[in-house]
Amino acid sequence: MKSLSIGFSSSMKHLSIKIVFIGLLSGCVGVSHKNNSEAMYIQASALTKLSKAVEVTVRYENPPATLSDEELLKLSTVDDPGLLDPFDGYTLKINRDFNHAIVLVCSSDGTQGLLEDAGCTADLDNPLWKQTMPCAFTLSSETTCFNK
Predict the structure, then answer these.
(1) Dihedral angle at the C-alpha atoms of 99, 123, 35, 132, nearest 10 degrees?
(2) Which terminus of the chain is more solvent-facing, meaning fewer CB atoms within 10 Å of its CB: N or C?
(3) Is residue 97 a contact partner of residue 141, using CB atoms and an 8 Å limit?
(4) Based on C-alpha coordinates, what's the Rg of the chain?
(5) Coil/strand/helix, residue 142
(6) DSSP type of residue 128
(7) Over the stretch 24-72, which tens digit does the pLDDT of each residue have?
């Protein structure tokens, strides 16, 4: 009877270790996603401020169409360069159309879209990080800015 008890105890011990290990792995996955979402919501808040600055520049300062996205971002943040700080290490793209601006934030390698915001609206327009999206514009100024 004693050997049966020891064998059972050893099997239970291995099973318990496996259950704990699987539980830990599951917990880590959940925490990682949660932290990613929290970080993206912080980025979203910063993006709405940046997209408004770009919108004002495009709408009222009439910058040349030949300006690169980087040059337009610098021009738009000349009074508050700190607006760009939260996006250090990300790829930023700007779509200018109908005197409005849409800013797209992508992963550092420029492959995955993370956030997209039209400067003409109050809230973040498209939380792309919630899906697997390419680094491409999904919004248009014509439909986003004129239908609000």
Answers:
(1) -50
(2) N
(3) yes
(4) 24
(5) helix
(6) G
(7) 433 433 333 444 889 999 999 999 999 999 999 999 999 999 999 999 9
Name the phi and psi angles at 117, rounded to 5: -145, 135
- Residue-wise pLDDT for 61-80, tens only, equals 999 999 999 999 999 999 99
The Cα 37–Cα 44 span in angstroms is 10
The secondary structure of 32-89 as a DSSP string is: HHHHHHHHHHHHHHHHHHHHHHHHHIIIII---TT--HHHHHHHHTTT-GGGGGGGTT
Q: For residue 43, give both structure tokens.
A: 């980025």
pLDDT at site 37? 87
Q: What residues have CB less than 8 Å from 99, skipping those under 6 apart?
A: 58, 59
Q: Given the structure tokens 């004002």, which residue do they identify?
A: 56
The Cβ-side half-sphere exposure at 127, using a 13 Å CA radius, reads 13
Band (pLDDT 50/70/90 cuts) for residue 12 is very low
Instruction: Scan for tokens 């008890």, then name that residue.
Output: 5
Structure tokens, 131: 């899906």
- Using the 8-state DSSP alphabet, how is residue 126 labeled? B
